[in-house]
Amino acid sequence: MMSKEKKSDKIKYVYYFGGNHAEGSADMKNLLGGKGANLAEMVNMGLPVPAGFTITSDVCTYYFKNNNEYPAMLKREVEKALEKLEKDMGMKFGDNNNPLLVSVRSGSRASMPGMMDTILNLGLNDDTIKGLIAKSGNERFAYDSYRRFIAMYGDVVLDLKPKTKDDIDPFEEIIEAKKAKRGIKLDFELSVQDLKELVVEFKAAIKKNCGVDFPEDPKDQLWGAIAAVFASWQNPRAIVYRKLNRIPEEWGTAVNIQAMVFGNMGENSGTGVAFTRDAANGDNIFYGEFLMNAQGEDVVAGIRTPLKIEKLKESDEKSYNQLLDIRNILEKHYRDMLDVEFTIQDGKLYMLQCRIGKRTAMAAVKIAYDMVQEGMIKPKEALMRIEPDQLNQLLRPVFDLKEKKKALENGALLTKGLNAGPGAACGKVVFNGEDAIAWAARGEKVILVRIETSPEDIAGMNAAEGILTARGGMTSHAALVARQMGKVCVAGCGALNIDYKTRQFYVEGKKDVIVKEGDFISIDGSTGEVMVGAVPTKPSEVVEVLISKTLDPKDAPIYQMYAQIMQWADKYRKLGIRTNADQPNQASNAVAFGAEGIGLCRTEHMFFGEGKIGPMREMILADNVADREKALAKLLPLQRKDFEGIFEAMDGRPVTVRTIDPPLHEFLPHDLAGQTSVATELGLAQKDVKERVELLHEFNPMLGFRGCRLGMIYPEITAMQARAVFEAAVNVIKKGKVVKPEIMIPLVGNVKELKHQEQIVRSIAAKVMDETGVKFEYMVGTMIEVPRGAITAGEVAEVAEFFSFGTNDLTQTTLGLSRDDAGRFLPEYVKREVYKVDPFVSVDQTGVGFLMQHAVEAGRTTRPSLKIGICGEHGGDPESVEFCHKIGLNYVSCSPFRVPIARLAAARIALSEKIARKQAKKDKKEKKDKKKNKKK
Amino acid sequence: MMSKEKKSDKIKYVYYFGGNHAEGSADMKNLLGGKGANLAEMVNMGLPVPAGFTITSDVCTYYFKNNNEYPAMLKREVEKALEKLEKDMGMKFGDNNNPLLVSVRSGSRASMPGMMDTILNLGLNDDTIKGLIAKSGNERFAYDSYRRFIAMYGDVVLDLKPKTKDDIDPFEEIIEAKKAKRGIKLDFELSVQDLKELVVEFKAAIKKNCGVDFPEDPKDQLWGAIAAVFASWQNPRAIVYRKLNRIPEEWGTAVNIQAMVFGNMGENSGTGVAFTRDAANGDNIFYGEFLMNAQGEDVVAGIRTPLKIEKLKESDEKSYNQLLDIRNILEKHYRDMLDVEFTIQDGKLYMLQCRIGKRTAMAAVKIAYDMVQEGMIKPKEALMRIEPDQLNQLLRPVFDLKEKKKALENGALLTKGLNAGPGAACGKVVFNGEDAIAWAARGEKVILVRIETSPEDIAGMNAAEGILTARGGMTSHAALVARQMGKVCVAGCGALNIDYKTRQFYVEGKKDVIVKEGDFISIDGSTGEVMVGAVPTKPSEVVEVLISKTLDPKDAPIYQMYAQIMQWADKYRKLGIRTNADQPNQASNAVAFGAEGIGLCRTEHMFFGEGKIGPMREMILADNVADREKALAKLLPLQRKDFEGIFEAMDGRPVTVRTIDPPLHEFLPHDLAGQTSVATELGLAQKDVKERVELLHEFNPMLGFRGCRLGMIYPEITAMQARAVFEAAVNVIKKGKVVKPEIMIPLVGNVKELKHQEQIVRSIAAKVMDETGVKFEYMVGTMIEVPRGAITAGEVAEVAEFFSFGTNDLTQTTLGLSRDDAGRFLPEYVKREVYKVDPFVSVDQTGVGFLMQHAVEAGRTTRPSLKIGICGEHGGDPESVEFCHKIGLNYVSCSPFRVPIARLAAARIALSEKIARKQAKKDKKEKKDKKKNKKK
After folding, report:
1. Span B796-808, pLDDT tens digits
2. Do A829 and B712 touch (CB under 8 A)?
3. What is the pTM of this model?
4. B825 to each of A711, B699, B828, B838, how far by Cα in Å?
């Protein structure tokens, strides 16, 4: 007994699947990777899957931690699995007569399509090829498989591949030479003899370039392939992808070794990929593509343009019907949209992969919505299926239909491709990823135009507005990645004739239109249209309904789904959602998006408005209180008017107004010409203005004379601003509306600062009530944005009625890191995972979060009713919203277009907590029951 | 029983003293103020003290909190006390025949000499004057007292006083007019009739200027005076004084009402002040001054130059002997040097005040040392008697005797005054406090020259190197305040003829030498000499023995005492004391002052050294690793040599070396000329240098690309510095010395930064050991100087073997406050007590201290052996040293000249804690005993 328990405690490195039973299951993704776990699940569901086994991702972690060595027991476990595989398949690895061939594929916890390496047809050598010929009766197929295997092995394992973009693939080079010699154009025109010669020439190329012989022993091939797949976890494109998708390096990849089935064994073989629903728009149709007589990589790589799945009915009706059945079985089992890969070998269907399908935001919303209608999932599950950031895509602009029509009428249409990534994009043409990054960095909008994209291009795709490719289908690399990123994409646009060298393209049949690098084009990812020139875009359907009000909700199906999802979200979320807005129109937009108040109204933005910068500068240049007050008196009615507009727009919702924050020199021109003009305007000597600007110069303005420090030294500024707010409130109240102003004092590090400013505000409030006879409610609170404010929050809360975390500045001070100056090292820091995410994008929960949590606890100890929010840019970041929920904030405030995202994020974290609580309860009960049973 | 207890619980506002019993005692200073408490103590000791009563400082606090109203019970208590006073004195307040006259004086917990107001002779009016004449038989004395009282009352209570420096006192103006009319020059030449007329004219002036009648009712006079004394707690000079001496505003002042005794009743009356030992040098002699036929204020105000106390023997031997007895009684009772005030009325001696005497640092050391030798106090008590900052004065320069002799031979001596504040000072002459402040602010050393100083001058005195006055004795305002501040002072220099208007002075008899504003003079506060020109100063005796080694300890009595005190301090202190030093000579100075190691060796200072800035700039301007390494290779031997020098100087003591910290642009010239010269030097285009400088420009360099961020991006810099340190260590070890390098990585906010840099350092260490075959010990640690470093200290300590708090930067980041830019608001913040002390001078214990304490706890939880120090400038501030002790640091590190101060501060806090523990134990025991007794 004892020894058995010990045995089962031993770490297991290899999980077998096949013969109607698998050792793994779908919920073992962390260990087996997505591919391995789902293969196991399908085997256990009784679906047709070629047998195989999975080496766990623990081995990967071990491998990198131990200087590229494997755990001691791995070899024996692999050999045992291989024996079982031989038995189940009735074939033998390395056997000359009946050789077992395998594929070796990566498979990590999160899907990383095309980022890591794969090897097919492994097990072939000059002896086993004979068995394959005998078995398949197809010498051409056998040699074609063999030469493909050698090339793949050379590329992946022996690193014999093009080193730069301009290099030609060394194996392609040999093929091209062969075709030239034979006077043929296409690969399939090569004769069996040609293929045989290629095998020899490929091996020679390996020997010459790599200095080693191609390994003839299948076991050597296998271990070489396993190591190469592990190594591909650390290739540059995988690293970039992980960074973009926030996948931790520690996860590692599993390796799947599976018996080969061949889609390229002849015309009754084939291979394909499919989505159980439309991944682009979410429609409930079986959506896929296939190629007969092809290997799977041919479909995904986008080299041949595949056929629509419906066409399979014509080629192989039995397999097509079986696929439709499997689609239903899988959706019912997984209760989600799936992405599957299949191969038909000699008329028999095999499932090679299934996984939860990637989808556009549109599709995510529609599928989630539809599945609720179909009774497949509950609303709260639907919410958990939509990533908050995906909503971004719903709000992106589309083409203005009138403008587009006009453009089309003027002959702007160049060609049409596949509508691979919905949305409208317009930008300057660039022809490679590096340029896309560089041009975007200097503020240009660009469209990345490629013959086809490869994983090396993902950083460039991320920088572009849209992607246009000449080759590849709806499931090609370009299409998949673009949808995931929420990028507009038109793919497989075969008429494009792209010349990378001269950096231009034209469309077959329209040679007179040459589009050069830097020219504007417009692409419609929803229709596949490609147009020359810049076609104006317009708001999305959701925006048209909510903001511009140019669309009736009942004519906007996407909007209706959006609205339903938002309604569900509002039901579950606990956090309030406010917005950062300084102008009435921003405020009403935000309300349309669901904002429940303004969390940050920056008054200094107002000072740049028309007619305001003059008196503002006059105020700053004044050298005594009297002159300053004279200038402030000019600003008062202007500010009051601004506040009236905002209060009306917010219509009874609370409005947090922050008193002036930036250093005064920001309002003055720093160049001589500007100073001269200001001097003339205000009737001062240019010298005096220059002197004043120099006097106001600061070494570290971020830590200088700003925030409440201004109000401490110039209390008359605070007084003017408070008066403008309260007089505006009175005027709007007089119109019968409700107004809830909340005056927020910035940069408080010491309760005495707040006390000083609060007294000014309260005395002005009392005066205004007295003068106007109108009573109003208001609050006085503070930004928490320097560490000392957070540390002394207990004291600060004695005066503050509310806190709002200014996480931009709090991040800068806590990390001692100026956002404006971090460019020289912060990207490198994020790359090296010193910080997993840019701390200005997502709250640094360890550092800044510590202070936030402390402030919440200390503040509420002093004042249990303390209202606490966040108004830094992090307020619209889903991870940060979750953190704010966890530490008990009352609300988050973000820019208007992030409001829907924050609403969803808030709902999701509330639901996650609920689920976790339920699970904990269940676990507790189970533990209890177990104990009870044991006692019995 | 019940009601009696209730009664005793009632707050008591008035404490009576007189008739051999007082309700108060010396230990009730907080409530009664220093003066009131010590008057009570002297009464209880049986010393001759005029009876009176004290209104507690609680009343003052109540008064300011309650809109200048008194507690309800105060009036009755004062009246009761007044009745008792009348009974004890056998006189009646406001009585026409036998009028009781009183003085009304302030008296706070801490001595604030001359800062608040006093009124004498209160109770006089047109009726009671008759009784005074009758009793004294001296009509001239009575009217002189009356006119003085009216003037004082007008000044203090009715605010009839000169409003600017240039105004004449309105009462003085009337006197001057009177004297002019009479054709006389001196006050005492005025006839009785003149004095009578003055009384009438003074009252008329009050009526005219203040719009009120002079109050004839003594009770009205009394309450007016009480209010005025309370109000004087808030006068500007009291506020400045509190700020300078860190006296909290909340303490408030008590008011003492005491029966008048008259030192001006005739030639057998007099008044004086004395120290029981010499307050300037600490000699064990009775040291005082007196004036016959004068009131006390005449001595202190410095208007008449008084006589040495020994002369009293000639005027009144009985009183003199009685004083000598009282001196001994008081010193034995208080076990300290005391400062007393006395009055002789008609041959009878009265004590009016006694308090612990202020003393120079010299005197503090000598008295403490002597009292230990005399068996009066223990060494640990001696330590508690010396304020750490006082030691500063012992280290200040004195004149170079040779140079001074030469100057004197060349006729530099202008005149001699009283040696009121020891030390040597040399600077430019200014004639008022404002100028002293302004000139000092721009870096000038100034000597403040005044006819006499007044409390308004203290801020100016604080800014000056030294103070020279024409009038006033050793206990004049100038002398007292200067000594307390540790300023050099020559007082009562009667030959000076100062003209404020033309801003110049000359010395009587040397009219050819006109000293103008801005001219250099030198004053010797130990001899009283005043010299024209700048006489070079030289190190103090302590410095001469320890540093320059030009003096034998046995010829240096002050040094010997200093050494003894330091020895005692070292016995009690728990904190280690290190120094901040970058150069071998700084290091050995610090060792001479007792430093036990270097806590901060800033390597960047070294780069400015000869031959180093060139390669440094080359390194910065390099645009690739190879060029950078080439430049670094040039720096390596230079840095190594620097470290060798420091290691040799520290001779086995630990040396903490910080890797490069400041932003690189600090090493490049920002002006065109400088850039051109650098370009020429390095063979680069000027344009390129300019471009590079602009590229390196930062908005907030404090939060920019600096500290470990440099080493993260340019690891080769860290590698070079580590190599320089370790190779230097090896070279010095080879000479047979011990070397303990500690590499400190700056600006760490994330353990991954430290880990990265640590690996470089450790790999270089291993290489150097390998290359040289010499083993050495070393540590790797970090500065904690951004909040995130402190917050994540638990993680940081996984890598760091030591922490050192960089409290300069930690203060800047925690408060969000750039020291370079705080000038526009921080002084105002300190003035308004937003921060009680400048947080860059003394650690902000609430904010920064919170993070420090957290870091200590978290760091030690991870690594119990973690060594923790502080190397910010706060390391030499006594209050900060105490804080560091309390939170459990291992050491403080400060500049070499602050080392003795830190040693003493460390001893004092250790002793304070011991005393507090003892007291707590005692309290516990008493409580227990009480409980026991109760049970019985």
Report:
1. 999 999 999 999 9
2. yes
3. 0.78
4. 10, 20, 5, 11
